[in-house]
Specification:
- The complex is a heterodimer.
- Chain A is an all-beta fold.
- Chain A has no helices and twelve strands.
- Chain A has strands at residues 4-5, 10-14, 19-21, 24-25, 32-39, 46-52, 60-61, 64-69, 74-79, 88-96, 103-106, 110-115.
- In chain A, the strands form three sheets. In chain A, strands 2, 5, 6, 10, 11 and 12 form a six-stranded mixed β-sheet that branches.
- The radius of gyration of chain A is 14 Å and the shape is globular.
- Chain A starts with a strand and ends with a strand.
- The relative contact order of chain A is 0.33.
- By secondary structure, chain B is an all-beta fold.
- Chain B contains no helices and eleven strands.
- Chain B has strands spanning 4-7, 10-13, 19-25, 32-38, 44-51, 57-58, 67-73, 76-81, 90-97, 104-106, 110-114.
- In chain B, the strands form two sheets. In chain B, strands 2, 4, 5, 6, 9, 10 and 11 form a seven-stranded mixed β-sheet that branches. A four-stranded antiparallel β-sheet of chain B has the order 1-3-8-7, with no helix packed on it.
- The chains are: A mainly beta, B mainly beta.
- The A-B interface holds A 33, 35, 37, 43-45, 47, 50, 52, 91, 93, 95, 100-109 and B 31-32, 34, 36, 38, 42-46, 49, 51, 57, 91, 93, 95, 97, 101-102, 104, 106, 108-109, 111.
């Protein structure tokens, strides 16, 4: 079974609009973490935002916010006021396990294209 | 923020040769490092988890004799692709876990092309 599911292979958004990228996860660990990364065509992985499973508040980092719904096991990324430079692949990832036995697995990604 | 380097950035080699890729944490000690493989327009596939001083844990379907991982120090993990073939051509990315739960630092990746 997929640990991380991103159901949107591609998304278009108008510049200055907000967009939500979906991510659902599956784990039986009580403690886990969820990441969102941006990967431009250069290939580098750029960290955007992190949500811990015990965090009470939804994470926010500038224009990025994470809509964390623990009961539904979803961790959607919201990008507000999209910019042309936001066009890239976006990956959701989950960290689970205990110290010394941790792993981080990735979803299949969503290609976001921002339209002028 | 913490920096992870990878060397080389890209490599072209002949079929049958072995290629070693280094992953270094430059300003912190990384107990755990991960090796990923990424095909064009696809996601990162976790190959193995490398813990300092112990044998790497390989994901299902990854040949441990093909992809040798050594994590001999807290700042260096190496991936050796042995007897490389064209189907091993890919983008290989390493990452290192930091002290805190929200810390995972990625290297810039290594593009391997096997002719």
């Amino acid at each position: 079974a997929q640990k991380i599911t991103q159901t949107q292979p591609g998304m278009f958004v108008q510049e200055k609009e907000a967009v939500t990228l979906d991510c659902t996860y599956d784990t039986s660990d009580p403690s886990y973490g969820l990441f969102w990364y941006k990967q431009p065509s250069s290939g580098e992985m750029i960290f955007l935002i992190y949500q811990g499973s015990y965090d009470q508040q939804n994470a926010t980092e500038g224009r990025y916010s994470l809509n964390f719904q623990k009961a539904r096991k979803s961790a959607n990324l919201v990008i507000s006021a999209s910019q042309l430079g936001d066009s890239a692949m976006y990956f959701c990832a989950m960290r689970e396990g205990i110290e010394g036995y941790q792993k981080v697995t990735f979803g299949t990604g969503t290609k976001l294209q921002v339209i002028p | 923020g913490a920096v992870v380097s990878q060397h080389p950035s890209w490599v072209i080699c002949k079929s049958g040769t072995s290629v070693k890729i280094e992953c270094r944490s430059l300003d912190f000690q990384a107990t755990t490092m991960f090796w990923y493989r990424q095909f064009p327009k696809q996601s990162l596939m976790l190959m193995a988890t490398s813990n300092e001083g112990s044998k790497a844990t390989y994901e299902q379907g990854v040949e441990k004799d093909k992809f040798l991982i050594n994590h001999a120090s807290l700042t260096l993990s190496t991936l050796t692709v042995t007897s490389a073939h064209p189907e091993d051509s890919s983008f290989y990315i390493c990452s290192a876990l930091g002290l805190f739960l929200d810390e995972q630092f990625f290297g810039p990746g290594t593009r391997l092309t096997v002719l």
